[in-house]
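TA notes, week 10

Several of you asked for a full example with nothing omitted. So below is the full record: structure tokens for the whole chain, then the designed sequence directly under it. When grading your own attempts, check the secondary structure regions first.
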């Protein structure tokens, strides 16, 4: 297995992106919007091509790092899932939490966003299993 492989990284990032679309769309869109303090007008502003494009690029970076670690360690399938969810809970959630403490964001917003990262990383890990 190569340290970098384009198809697993693209597929993992795509899985994460799809989770985000569902998470912030039909599942928690209105709750997230309320917790974030955003009006309907606020949500409509901004260049969505840039926002979605950068989101996917950031998810590609996450996928590249995780794939690299999986490839370097030769992780077993259950370890791949542990690493994926471990990234979400051990690195991403605390980072979000620290920012939200200083930004005085709500616990509800934290829960919604960390849930997204947890499910998104689990989806990425699950996709990576298809390439092992």
């Amino acid at each position: 297995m190569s340290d970098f492989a384009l198809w697993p990284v693209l597929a993992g990032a795509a899985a994460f992106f799809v989770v985000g679309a569902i998470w912030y769309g039909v599942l928690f869109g209105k709750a997230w919007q309320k917790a974030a303090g955003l009006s309907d007008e606020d949500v409509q502003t901004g260049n969505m091509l840039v926002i979605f494009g950068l989101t996917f690029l950031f998810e590609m970076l996450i996928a590249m790092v995780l794939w690299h670690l999986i490839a370097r360690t030769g992780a077993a399938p259950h370890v791949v899932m542990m690493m994926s969810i471990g990234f979400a809970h051990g690195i991403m959630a605390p980072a979000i939490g620290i920012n939200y403490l200083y930004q005085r964001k709500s616990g509800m917003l934290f829960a919604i966003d960390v849930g997204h990262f947890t499910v998104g990383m689990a989806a990425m890990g699950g996709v990576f299993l298809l390439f092992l």
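The mean pLDDT is 95. Use that as a sanity check on your answer.
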